[in-house]
Amino acid sequence: MAAAAADHAAPTIDALSQFKLEPLGFIGGAVNFTQANLLMVIGSALVLALLYYGSKPRAVVPGRLQAAAELAYDFTYNMAVEQIGPEGKRYFPFVFTLFFFVLMGNMLGLVPFSFTYTSHIAVTAALAILVIVIVTAVSLIEHGWNFFTYFFPSGAPVWLAPLIVPIEIISYLSRPVSLSIRLFANMVAGHVMFAVFAAFIVMMGSAGTFGIAAAIGPLAVNVVLMGFELLVAALQAYVFAILTCIYLHDAVHLH
Amino acid sequence: MDVAAATKLGAGIAVIALAGVGIGIGNIFSALVTSIARNPSARDQVFGLGILGFALTEAVALFALLIAFLILFT
């Protein structure tokens, strides 16, 4: 960024500084508590509050909050059971936690002046590694040494083994990579697009009366983008959760 | 060729991958529309699958876009 600014004097777009972590206050600086951590705490607290206050009334005819909590519960429960099978009940709490942690991260990031913690590869990679470690552990516990037949599908001719086994191992190991990069890239790309079009507004606004009139264009694009990003935020949380379910299905049933 | 020009060209070349993604997403939604038109009662199940395919394909586009952003802004 600095090098590009030195090369030519034209106004530049500072799109990546929005992802910078800032320790909060004196205590935050001492223990490295950044705004990302604050948003994680807020997101988790919101989900817990929804479930606590949603399940408190226990009404037969649910109120609004209880209906929302039941909807959230039912949605993830059906997802886990449909994808994993009857065993999905056991893994439902894990899927629920993952889905709502990611969803809260994506959604809270769209609030102006807040921060998207899922836009950091450190966060998404930690989640993806957690998923893959749990999937492998489940598979090893369920099937013991039979787990390793996963890398050689039954029915394949034996002489193809030198080809199939490395491919299966690579595809297994690339799961956490694609899982983490998909979420992180989606969030970064969306927020960079916001910043780029916001910079267009400022650039056009500084170009006189005609520029101010023309700046309505990028402003409209940003409004549309906000709607699109709401879709992407929900969709990526859903994709993260459903891929976790698919991996768990493979772990429980071995192909 | 100076570095600034090469940076802009590189970012442009990086997003050529979006052509393939466009074809892929078009295929997914054409298949989705066809299958719903043939069997409207399967809409609920097929729609989820279509959205999943869309998200997986779109991720490829975002990888390319991310590379372009990294070239442009860092």
What does this structure look like?
The complex is a heterodimer of chains A (255) and B (74). Chain A has 255 residues and is mostly helical. Chain A has one domain. Chain A is 74% helix and 0% strand. Chain A has nine helices and no strands. In chain A, helix 5 (88-108) packs antiparallel against helix 9 (216-253) and helix 6 (121-143) runs antiparallel to helix 7 (161-205). The longest helix of chain A has 45 residues, at 161-205. Chain A is globular. Mean pLDDT of chain A is 87; it is low at 1-9. With 74 residues, chain B is mostly helical. Chain B has a single domain, classed as F1FO ATP Synthase, CATH 1.20.20.10. Chain B has helices spanning 3-14, 18-38, 43-73. In chain B, helix 1 (3-14) runs antiparallel to helix 3 and helix 2 packs antiparallel against helix 3 (43-73). Chain B is elongated, with a radius of gyration of 17 Å. At the A-B interface, helix 1, helix 7 and helix 9 of A face helix 1 and helix 3 of B.
